[in-house]
Amino acid sequence: MALLSRKQRYFLIKVLGLLSIVRWPNVLFTAITQYIIALYIASPVKGTWAVLADLELHLIVFATAFLIAGGFIINSFYDFEKDMVNRPHRTLFSRIVSKDFCLKTYFVVTILGVGLSAFASWRVLLFFSAFAFGLWFYSHKLQRYPIVREATSATLAVVSVFGILLYYQVINSLMVVYAAIFMSLMLNREIIKNLRNYDGDVAVGNQTISTYWGKRASLRLFTGITAMVLVGLMAFFQWSTGRFTLHFSSGISLIALIALALLWMRDAAHRLRIAHNLYKIAIAACILYLVIY
What we know:
With about 290 residues, the protein is mostly helical. It has helices spanning about 5-20, 25-45, 50, 55-85, 90-95, 100-120, 120-140, 150-170, 175-195, 200-205, 210, 215-240, 245-265, 270-290. The chain is built from 14 helices and no strands.
C-alpha cells in the first residue's frame, strides 16, 4: 500500500513547485538579515532583550517575508516563458502550479504581509503598502525598461533588508555608505543575471541592458559600478572603527575585481556562473560583517 495517495503526491509536488517559485532561501536570508541588523545595530541603543521582546520587530520581519514571497510569485507569473528558456530545470516543479493558483497565492501572502504590518503601526503599514505596490509595479511594468528594472530591483532588495534601520532610527552617514555599497553590489548582480538570462530575454522580447544596448554596454556599466563599489569601500574603511574593516573592505574589493575580470573574458556560461556566485558571497559577507563589526 502506498504511503501517499495520488492526490496527496500531486499536492506535495504542487507545494514543492510553489516553494521553488517563492525561493524560500532568499526569503529566509532576508529574515535572518533583518534580525541581525536589529540585534547588532539597534541593540547597543535599546539592549538585546528589549529588541527580542519587541513584538513590532517580529511583525515587520514576517510582513517582509510574506511580501517578498509574494514578489517572487508575481515575478514568476510574468517571467514564466523566459524562465522556461533560461532555467528549464528550475521550472520543472513550477509547471505544476497554474497561473491562477499563483495569482491566488500572491494575493493571500500579500494581504497577510500588509495585514501584519498594520498591527505594528500606521507608519509601518504605509511603508509596507508602498513596498508591496513597488514589488507588483516592478514585475508588471518596470521590467520592460532597461536600467530602470535593474535599479528598481536593487533598490527593492536594499529596502527589504535595510528598511529595519528606519524603524529603529539608527541611520547615520556610515550606514548610508554601507547601504550604498550593498545596493551597488545588488545592481551588479542584476547585470550578471541579465547576461546569464540573455537568451531567454531575447526569446520573449524582454528589454534589458544586455538586449537593448548590447553586452558590451552591460560590461561598461558593470565596470563603472565596480569602480563605485571600490570608492565606497575606501570611504567606509576611512570612516569605520570596526575591528575587521580592513578584512571586509579588502575581501569585497578582491571579489569585485575577480568578477570584473571574469566578465571581460570571452563570454562563457561557466564564467558568468562563477561571477554570480562570487557576488552571492560578497552580499552574504556584507551581512556577516554586521555581526562581527
